[in-house]
Structures are given as C-alpha cells and as structure tokens.
Design a protein that fits this description.
Elements lengths: L1 H31 L6 H27 L5 H12 L1 H30 L3 H21 L3 H4 L1
Length: 145
Amino acid sequence: MYETVLFIHSYWAYLLLLILIVASVNSLVGYFSNKEYGATNFRIALFTLIVTHIQLLIGLVLYFVSPYFRMFGEEGMGGVMKDSVLRLYLVEHPLMMIIAVVLVTMGYSKHKSKLTSKPKFKMLAIFYTLALVFILSRIPWNTWL
C-alpha cells in the first residue's frame, strides 16, 4: 500500500506544482497588468485549491502508512530531530505543506470577498506565491527527481 500511495503522492505533486505555478503567474500578471478578473481566473484559483487539498489528503495517508512513521516509536522525537532525513520526512515536509495548503485556502477565501479585480489578483498573488515558495523549499529533491 505504501508504494501505491507514494506513487500517487509523487505524481500528483507534479500536477500541483504546475497548477500552482500557473495560478501564481496568472495572478501576478493580472495584478500588474490591471486585467479584469473573470471566470477563467476564478476557475484557475478554484482548481488550485482543489488540487492542493487532494494532495494534502494523499499526503496524510502516506504519512501514516510510511515506514518513516514507525521511527517516532523507535527513535522518539529526539532521535527523529537529530537525523536530517527523518526530520525532513516526519516534521519539516509535512509542516511546510500544511502551511502551504493553509495559505492557498486563505488566499482563495480572501480573494472572494474583494469586489474589484486588482484586490482579487493581489490576494491570490500574495498567498499562492508564498505557498509555492513554501512547497518548493521542502520538497525532498534528491528522491523526487
């Protein structure tokens, strides 16, 4: 089961990165070029929200079926924090990804309350770009590529 969930989580991450980059660039371009916020922009923002939440659910399942998770019982929190690989997979990566999902959710929620295009794009640009930076900072690049 672990291998299957890991496969899904890894390849869904490509989709997540692609759509988050598209959404961030779209919102930045819309903000700086004073474009009108339309249905396509709304769909991009919504699709980004959906994809990030699905990735979070897959990641939570993976977290608890992972062989790394057993290391909490064997090593304890002190042992996990001393090992950089265990710390990445058990603490840093999950925490930063949850923060990124919260940022995407906040950006989507805040942009809906804005009445004009520029503030809508601004909210999406800030929160989605921050989420992208957080995600890129804690991807285990050595095993992912």
